[in-house]
Amino acid sequence: MLAGAGAPVHTEAFPMQATAAVLYEPRTPLRIEQVEVQPPGPGEVTVRMKAAGVCHSDYHVMCGDLTMPMPIILGHEGAGVIEAVGEGVKTVAHGDHVILMWRGSCGRCEYCASGRPALCDLGTAMRFNGTMPDGTMRFRNAAGQPIRHYAGVSAFSSVSTMPEASVVKIDSEFSFEKAALIGCGVITGVGAVTNAAQVRYGSTVAVIGCGGIGLNIVQGAKSAGARQIIAVDNVASKLDHARRFGATDAVDASAGDPVQAIKDLTGGKGAEFTFEAVGRADTIAQAFDATRKSGKCVVVGISRADARAPINVNQLVYAEKSLIGSLYGTARPRTDLPMLIDMHRAGKLLLDELITRRYRLDQINEAYEALIKGEVARSLIVF
User: Fold this and answer.
1) At a CB cut-off of 8 Å and minimum separation 6, what does 84 contact?
2) Within its chain, how far is the Cα of 16 from the centroid?
3) HEC-encoded secondary structure of the chain
């Protein structure tokens, strides 16, 4: 029997059977198959998934840009219901609704203590090892082979065991679909604006890349009171989305030099705050070049592991520009996620408008094809 904050859960229910999308090799389709889910150990929980976001970060692993040990169950943006709790779990109980946090944190290290939990070594280790904090795994395929976890959560499984540190309880009346979006795309984009860049009221902003993250940067900038928000992309539909989320200007990156276009729209100065939400070396350089003197360039997009951007170093000195990165919105998820829910309820944050399509888990490869083609703002796997 497993003891926890809620009613005890009998181990007779385990191992559970779940349907999951498993990646066995890079550049191959995800395989839909039945997997065995082991019970939660001490400090762990088992979640029955209700919704999971289709995010480009997982695609980096699928296409081999980021290496991970395999086989692995991807998915890091999700929401669900606590199915079981392990010994010592205190913050959630059986039946609680939760958002997944793909950067679990220990709460004790120097990063956690200084308000930077996304940098915690616990989350970093789980990301690179594909295991639980104790170095073991909770998935098995039909052949009995262990399957790795992604970012500690593996949201592309209908049932998943993960650390208690990877979930935060939410109001049971809040939509699972909206909760899944908040857990990565929204907190990453809005947090980059408010926490990393600290965009000021009345400032000018440029956002290069208007996918799921970029749209949330746009609406984060609008919420912060930016007077000009320039959206940059080479897909017309994404620029249309950006306008709906608050962009005042749109630049088609395929029609000319986006850096010059941003400067032309800002009186030749460049934007005070620029954001790169693509994850490519050339667009990072563009964002930096489009930043005005004393401005701040924030890189949010995830790049290939070996990517290097050609930055004009003298601009760091002569123009006093700042170049920084932002992971997980530089956020404190346990406080920021509930705050974002409150913002949505107050009409200050768009969520329904982010959802372009919904898919079943067995349509996940189709969902990623649509993402790579730029056909969607954000799509969801609904269980």
Assistant:
1) 2, 4, 9, 13, 14, 39, 40, 45, 46, 94
2) 27
3) CECCCCCCECHHHCCEEEEEEEECCCCCCCEEEEEEECCCCCCEEEEEEEEEEECHHHHHHHCCCCCCCCCEECCCCEEEEEEEECCCCCCCCCCCEEEECCCCCCCCCHHHHCCCHHHCHHHHHHHHHCCCCCCCCCEECCCCCEEEECCCCCCCECEEEEEHHHEEEECCCCCHHHHHHHHHHHHHHHHHHHHHHCCCCCCEEEEECCCHHHHHHHHHHHHHCCCEEEEEECCHHHHHHHHHCCCCEEEEHHHCCHHHHHHHHCCCCCEEEEEECCCCHHHHHHHHHCEEEEEEEEECCCCCCCCCCCCCHHHHHHCCCEEEECCHHHCCHHHHHHHHHHHHHCCCCCCHHHEEEEECHHHHHHHHHHHHCCCCCEEEEEC
Instruction: Tally Cβ neighbours within 10 Å of residue 173.
Output: 6
Q: What is the pTM of this model?
A: 0.93
> In this predicted model, which residue has the larger pLDDT, 273 or 304?
273
- Decide if 188 contacts 216 (C-beta within 8 A): yes
Q: Residue 42 is encoded by which pair of tokens?
A: 């001490």
Q: Which domains does the chain have, with CATH numbers?
A: 11-173+351-382 (3.90.180.10), 186-327 (3.40.50.720)
For tokens 């809040």, name the residue: 174
Question: Using CA atoms in the order 166, 220, 223, 172, what is the torsion angle rounded to 10 degrees?
Answer: -30
Residue-wise pLDDT tens digits, 7-26: 445 556 889 999 999 999 99
Give 323's strand partners.
297
* Identity of the residue numbered 94: H
Q: How far apart are CA 343 and CA 203, in angstroms?
A: 21
User: For residue 6, what pLDDT band results from cuts at 50, 70 and 90?
Assistant: very low
- C-beta of residue 261 within 8 angstroms of C-beta of residue 237: no
Residues annotated catalytic, as ranges: 55, 57, 60, 76, 184
Give 352's contacts (C-beta < 8 A, 6+ positions apart).
178
